[in-house]
Hints:
heterodimer, A: 187 residues, globular, B: 4 helices, elongated
Amino acid sequence: MATASVLGVDGATMNPARDRLERMFLEHHEFIWRLLRRLGLDGDVAADTTQQVFLIAAERLGDIRPESERAFLFGTALRLSRSLLRRQKRCQLEDDMDLRQSEGSRQEELTDHNRAVALMDQILAKMDTDLVTVFVLFELEELSTAKISELLQIPLGTVASRLRRARDAFRTQALRAERSLRQSRQS
Amino acid sequence: MKDPERLLLSDSTNFERFVLRAARSEQPSPSHRRRMRRALFLAEFAFLTSGVKAAAAATANHFRHRRHHRRYGRWFGIDDSDA
Lengths: 187, 83
């Protein structure tokens, strides 16, 4: 994608608001999309929701303080994902996220990378959302705990304790997933 | 307070590294980028016609459907050739 103009219009624009929005898009859209994916939305839904996040940002551009664009986008994404996931949960049929069940035919078609991403999604789906958020921001997006505290508007000590619990939960679930994977390969 | 070292760099297992690396490098698809371009086009439309922002958001929803893509895409002069 050309970085000169997301909108495909050549040359400098006369609209500072649009330039700002474009800058926000270039700097943050992948972060927002990945965050939504790790919070449990599938690829298409994450894409739609990312779009919605930026449309909300476009509508409220005047209210977003300079230097707090990322925080605004992050907060909006988090709110939208929570509401979507709540709705999904209400509609969800019995799904025990059995790895053996999802292995088999479908997994064979996936590349190693896609399989790893799918496994990560299954691991995170079994963790508490608050823990997942901190875990994703720290371990995957490599934000500092201070930055996470600022984004989530929670004390630094809470970030540290959630991170500890998130890591424990991640390791437990990863171990289970690995064992389950081995069993399914043996059988 | 010093941040702990990232799991990927510390004592994680091979399996943990396998899933962590993949999740870190996952990127949106090209079609996602195209959709985002359209969304931003609509945002610009909202700026130009300030006061009808809700209409722009509604139009964005319409854009998700191929039928409307074809109809309004041409109307707004969106180059859809890469879609």
